[in-house]
Design goal:
Number of helices: 6
Distance between the termini: 70 Å
Shape: flat
Order of helices and strands: HHHHHH
Oligomer: single chain
Number of domains: 3
Structural class: mainly alpha
Strand content: under 5%
Length: 160
């Protein structure tokens, strides 16, 4: 790097990524590194960089392997273009008129087509809420953490 710029100073940072805070670097210097075959990944926000760094460190420290360029490129694309999340409504009362129409249309519920006034909207919400409640399935309820399980076990053994 000193061949690129003589005043270049490297500050030690164990992070596997170059940031403007850890290593001050310009666009022309990045282009030079890229032209020499050094892979460069640019992120839009700090969270994306953190996700990539975590992936690399997990592979290195936990799985005891080194990531190849192809796998890093795949992870990079996955971080930049995350899969769409699916929205599962739990309460019809929190849904807007357009969301109610969309939900009713998706599940082919019979709801009035007229513009929503207060009474019609209330009826549509009741129909949609009944459909949501009917299709919840057998939920597991509140899950206990390991700490809660151990505390419950201690209380139970102390009572005996």
């Amino acid at each position: 790097m000193r061949r690129i710029h003589p005043n270049y100073k490297i500050k030690y940072n164990p992070a596997p990524f170059i940031t403007s805070e850890s290593v001050p670097i310009t666009r022309s210097q990045l282009d030079f590194l890229k032209s020499k075959g050094i892979p460069i990944f640019g992120f839009n926000n700090q969270r994306q960089c953190y996700d990539m760094r975590t992936h690399v460190l997990r592979a290195k420290n936990v799985e005891k392997r080194t990531l190849g360029l192809e796998e890093m490129n795949q992870k990079y694309q996955q971080i930049l273009n995350p899969p769409p999340t699916t929205y599962v409504p739990t309460l019809a009362i929190a849904m807007s008129s357009s969301e109610l129409k969309e939900y009713a249309g998706r599940y082919k519920l019979s709801v009035p087509e007229t513009p929503y006034d207060a009474d019609t909207k209330k009826a549509v919400r009741q129909i949609v809420q009944a459909h949501i409640d009917a299709n919840k399935g057998a939920g597991g309820g509140k899950q206990r953490t390991m700490k809660q399980k151990m505390m419950f076990k201690k209380k139970r053994t102390l009572k005996k």
